[in-house]
């Protein structure tokens, strides 16, 4: 990697943004560490590992931990591609403006539509999962009514923090980062060092999870352990216009998010496996929620309660970061006139300098989804969130594909973060990895129940199909004259401006 691009060495943030066709509308008060904290709390290894630990171990056994290395490596390649793109285009919204400037507005419409819904569903899911922690801390029975009320509390408290402005967002994100590091790294290390009930060789022992079949397919089935975990780094770019020196700092924050998040997840997952008193029961699927028992056995009742407080802080920070990222994407989409109510959504609060109307939407729709989950069947949360991971990966790969297309056409990224001659190879391998990941995510199950087996593709089809219908019937692209497909021209313009 190289930062030797003189074209950007002398361009200030406002000058760079003006060259891209926009004026500064936000306070640039977010530092590198606050930006990293935002991405890290969105990625949230604590939330990811807690949510999928039992599923991963019961599907692929202890060796499922290796999916974290596989997916972490693949997503690091994606983050490097994103780093070059955001370094040239440090614009609010991430996926939407990047795909628009790399390809075109119709392509960007569909990518952003899928990504918006994937993020909104993810906000809902994290609030729902976090409600269980809050209920446990308050000793409230986990009923559907309690889950609805506590999920709504998560969403509204996060909205209040987001309304306060970028500085508050950065502070809370840093607090969430500290909670994540304590809850994941510190607890993971403690379990690894002092509470081991298994030997390290257990990570190459399937414990019979494959039954009479091949372990290869059991291992593939556990891929979600990594695939669900390693996204969120793109949120660093969603708030680009609120970061000082974003063209340099955001790529670094993205790489840090993947690296630190990966180490944290490995320590947490490994610690839970080694500290499990009855690992075979988890592998056999007899213990569907083993982490509370592992923590209470290892930390004691008081220690487990303290962990719940730390975990709640991480969950709240995760919801906060998700809302912030979703609102900036909605704002960016609306600023270019690409969605209904775009004038209202594109407004920025003159006092707090945040897109308050977009934030309201990023809170209100998850609230409605929480109510739908409340009145629906028990498995509805799983069903409506099943497409979210695939949707996010499709949106990510839309950027990777568009960047590779531009490279083939002669694009040389003009930001201060550059992969140099390695850019094309990294881009191509990142696309190959993404295709592999999407196939794993979309592969149908084998329960024999059509809806359950095909729910990921059904959910994705509904979202993508509705987006296509709106695109070709309402034609929002005709109402937008913002720049598109100009990566090569902008790169040359940025180099010329600095001469």
Automatic annotation (TrEMBL):
Q: Which GO terms describe its cellular component?
A: membrane
Checking InterPro entries in the record gives: AA/rel_permease1
Q: Which UniProt keywords apply?
A: Membrane, Transmembrane, Transmembrane helix, Transport
Task: Tell me the Gene3D superfamilies matching this sequence.
Answer: Amino acid/polyamine transporter I (1.20.1740.10)
Query: Membrane-spanning regions, if any?
Result: 32-53, 65-86, 107-126, 146-163, 175-194, 214-233, 253-275, 306-333, 354-374, 380-404, 424-443, 455-473
Query: Its principal location?
Result: membrane
Q: Name one Pfam family in it.
A: AA_permease_2
Give GO terms: molecular function aspect only.
transmembrane transporter activity
- Which membrane topology term applies here? Multi-pass membrane protein
User: Domain of life of the organism in this record?
Assistant: Bacteria
**Where is it located?**
Membrane
In its UniProt entry, what is this protein called?
A: Amino acid transporter
Which species is this record about? Glaciibacter psychrotolerans
């Amino acid at each position: 990697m190289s930062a030797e691009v003189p074209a950007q060495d002398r361009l200030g943030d406002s000058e760079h943004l003006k060259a891209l066709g926009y004026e500064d509308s936000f306070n640039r008060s977010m530092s590198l560490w606050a930006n990293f904290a935002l991405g890290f709390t969105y990625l949230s290894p604590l939330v990811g590992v807690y949510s999928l630990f039992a599923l991963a171990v019961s599907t692929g056994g202890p060796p499922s931990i290796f999916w974290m290395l596989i997916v972490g490596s693949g997503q690091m390649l994606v983050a490097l591609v994103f780093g070059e793109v955001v370094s040239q285009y440090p614009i609010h919204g991430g996926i939407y403006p990047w795909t628009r400037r790399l390809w075109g507005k119709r392509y960007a419409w569909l990518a952003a539509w899928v990504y918006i819904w994937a993020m909104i569903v993810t906000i809902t899911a994290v609030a729902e999962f976090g409600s269980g922690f809050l209920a446990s801390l308050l000793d409230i029975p986990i009923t559907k009514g309690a889950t609805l009320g506590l999920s709504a509390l998560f969403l509204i408290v996060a909205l209040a923090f987001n309304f306060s402005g970028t500085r508050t967002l950065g502070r809370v994100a840093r607090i969430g980062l500290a909670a994540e590091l304590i809850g994941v790294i510190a607890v993971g290390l403690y379990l690894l060092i002092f509470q081991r009930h298994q030997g390290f060789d257990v990570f190459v022992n399937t414990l019979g999870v494959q039954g009479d079949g091949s372990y290869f397919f059991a291992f593939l089935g556990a891929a979600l352990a990594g695939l669900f975990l390693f996204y969120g780094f793109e949120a660093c770019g969603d708030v680009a216009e609120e970061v000082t020196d974003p063209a340099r700092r955001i790529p670094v924050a993205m790489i840090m998010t993947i690296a630190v998040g990966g180490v944290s997840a490995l320590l947490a997952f490994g610690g839970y496996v080694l500290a499990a008193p009855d690992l075979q029961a988890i592998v056999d699927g007899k213990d569907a929620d083993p982490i509370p028992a592992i923590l209470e056995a290892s930390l004691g009742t008081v220690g487990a309660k303290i962990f719940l407080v730390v975990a709640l802080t991480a969950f709240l920070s995760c919801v906060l970061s998700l809302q912030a990222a979703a609102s900036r994407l909605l704002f960016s989409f609306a600023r270019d006139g690409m969605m209904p109510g775009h004038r209202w959504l594109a407004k920025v609060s003159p006092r707090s300098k945040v897109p308050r109307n977009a934030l309201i939407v990023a809170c209100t729709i998850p609230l409605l989804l929480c109510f739908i989950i409340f009145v629906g069947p028990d498995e509805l949360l799983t069903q409506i969130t099943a497409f979210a991971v695939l949707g996010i990966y499709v949106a990510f790969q839309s950027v990777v594909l568009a960047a590779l297309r531009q490279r083939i056409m002669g694009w040389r990224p003009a930001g201060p973060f550059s992969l140099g001659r390695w850019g094309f190879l990294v881009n191509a391998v990142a696309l190959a990895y993404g295709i592999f990941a999407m196939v794993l995510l979309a592969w149908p199950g084998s329960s024999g129940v059509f809806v359950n087996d095909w729910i990921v593709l059904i959910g994705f089809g509904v979202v993508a199909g509705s987006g296509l219908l709106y695109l070709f019937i309402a034609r929002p692209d005709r109402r937008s004259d913002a720049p598109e497909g100009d990566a090569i021209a902008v790169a040359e313009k940025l180099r010329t401006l600095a001469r």
